[in-house]
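Here is a tokenized protein:
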Amino acid sequence: MTGPERVVLATPDDPLDLDHGRLDHVEVAYETWGELSPARDNVVFVAHALTGDAHAGGEGGWWANLIGPGLALDTDRYFVVCPNLLGGCQGTTGPSSVNPATGEPWGLDFPLLTMRDLVAVHRRLLAHLGVTRLHAAIGGSLGGMQVLQWALDDPTAIGRAIIVAASSRLSAQNIAFSAVARDAIVRDPDFQDGRYVGTGRRPDRGLAVARRMAHITYVSEESLERKFGRDRLSDGPPRHGTDFQVESYLDHQAETFLARFDALSYLYLTRVMDYFDPFDSGPAAAFDGSGATRFLVLSFDSDWRFPTSHSARIHEHLLAGGASSEHLEIASPWGHDSFLLQPPGYHEAIREFVG
């Protein structure tokens, strides 16, 4: 397709009930690739990560190496759907959207969200498309958490669930990283108590700090050393400011991020991840029916943000609930961001599992 489509999925007559509130208006931006079969049984749903959006496939798509003709998610066979999630800032309702009750941007008055809320909007989108069951669903990082929540809520809604570089319970270290990132945002004088939208001032300094720090956790020490080492921009005596190549790289990451993401969405979506703990009351729900979801849980050996132990925990809880689950650790030098790349065996495993 060319560009995202937009659809209203909640109205005052059919509001979206959340775990901690209600929304009378929800608009969703989504993109699709491939053709929907007459039986509507060839749908593959893609759930994006924290700073992703609906543009997963096609030119410039963040998962263009996975989605397309002849690729692991073969659009000659499958109808691939990817929406911008609830709370996002790329066409779907979020905290920077207008609150219909006030005519002003929501800001921090927007309800706090849960993983189940994100999935509820995904379900409404599928109902709009006339799809009752997914052939497969896949997501990396926060996207994998959405897929896990979906399958736990309805063990027959997804035929095959692929959970990549995800977690079912963030560690204290993970929560700490996000807490510092959020603090950098809210302490920026231009944050204005969350009411910066439309003022011409945004908390770009705080969001840039958040992005720089987060990006370090997405890559491995080995990959940074390979790419930059201790190389400098120029010779000469020590100086303040950007001097090493790796510093320039982080500056670039921050600059491009500011052009496409919103600080309020960062606050809300990182908080969703903090509170996610779907196995807190014990093993997974029973997956003992013939139409129950099958799982492929993938991790990367250099990922220290969500290390293999997090994927192993998901796999073990699924097995305890009677699910068909396979866990595979992929060798990769690129850390958490490996889920966006093509380390050997990764896309091959997805292709085989999707069938």
